[in-house]
From TrEMBL:
This is Uncharacterized protein. It comes from Sorangium cellulosum (Polyangium cellulosum).
Length: 310
């Protein structure tokens, strides 16, 4: 792939044959790292959790297949239950991976304690994911799912913020940037707020809130990419930084929904091409394909929310 192609509008990959992809099964680790769901959270094996196959039972939940893992979104005519369940499915999957990423970036015996906590959260959100996926929900039967999920999200936020403070103070010496702790804490905080609204019966999205949240999240992603590329990938580093700055400027000076939707599509194209280049060995980096796929799924969610926000 010509690396210069990343600097312009990129055609998205076609995903024919993705029906064989299994919902909830992690495709993220190198061989030998997959962990069965039955293993304890204090296991020294660190990596994704293999979950049983299945499809969402709640009518109206749509699966977007532009990434390696399914992206759960509300369908065109989705009701309240489908909106709520798709949001729980999307974010519990992301939070499950947050636990995995933290654990991977906490090597060695001295980090065994916080690594074990991260692994426990990974297991916890795998459980919430399965609870949301493997049962058909109605509008009047969501309370337990939403409240129990939110309670664990709040605990994960406390852990992330505690780890962020320790990393900033130098008392935690992990490989996790303070900004990464902050970034994933903000995602969890927003999910907790959304769960509270959903528990009140509201699935509505506000355009200003969607723009404020996602522009900074996408900008952070691009800065992460810039710092994880090989220093010799100068053109791509500069491109990622320029795109991040554009999104930070968009956060400060709001644009219309049409322009924001276009920017979301451009981010999807950039991340899709980057993931392909990383997988093919055409881009030099220390970006694991799991992280590339993780941020791509969030870009697709960004695009979806921009189009649904009122």
């Amino acid at each position: 792939m010509d690396k210069r192609a990343l600097q312009g509008k990129l055609g998205r990959r076609q995903f024919a044959g993705r029906a064989a992809a299994t919902a909830g099964i992690s495709l993220l680790a190198t061989p030998g790292l997959a962990i069965g769901a039955g293993k304890g959270a204090d296991s020294e094996s660190v990596g994704p959790i293999s979950l049983p196959e299945g499809a969402a039972f709640t009518p109206g939940v749509y699966v977007d297949q532009r990434a390696r893992k399914p992206i759960y979104l509300p369908g065109a005519n989705a009701g309240y239950a489908a909106h709520a369940v798709s949001e729980v499915l999307f974010w519990t999957d992301q939070l499950m991976e947050h636990g995995m990423f933290i654990a991977l970036l906490m090597p060695g015996d001295r980090l065994r304690g916080p690594r074990s906590e991260a692994r426990q959260f990974q297991m916890t959100f795998a459980g919430h994911f399965l609870s949301a996926r493997d049962r058909g929900y109605r509008d009047d039967g969501l309370s337990s799912l939403l409240l129990s999920t939110r309670a664990d999200v709040l605990q994960f936020i406390e852990y992330k913020r505690r780890m962020q403070r320790a990393q900033e103070a130098g008392t935690l010496k992990s490989l996790v940037w303070p900004l990464f702790f902050d970034h994933i804490a903000r995602e969890a905080e927003r999910f907790a707020d959304r769960l509270a609204l959903l528990a009140q019966g509201s699935a509505a999205l506000q355009s200003d809130e969607v723009a404020a949240f996602w522009t900074t999240i996408m900008a952070d992603h691009l800065e992460f990419v810039a710092h994880l590329l090989d220093p010799q990938e100068r053109a791509l580093v500069a491109d990622a930084k320029a795109r991040a700055e554009q999104l930070y400027q968009t956060h400060a000076h709001r644009v219309g929904s049409g322009q924001l939707a276009t920017m979301a599509d451009e981010v999807i194209d950039f991340k899709t091409a980057a993931e392909h280049g990383i997988e093919a060995g055409q881009i030099k980096s220390i970006i694991d394909p799991s992280l590339a796929d993780h941020v791509l799924r969030e870009a697709v969610r960004f695009s979806d929310e921009v189009r649904r926000a009122g």
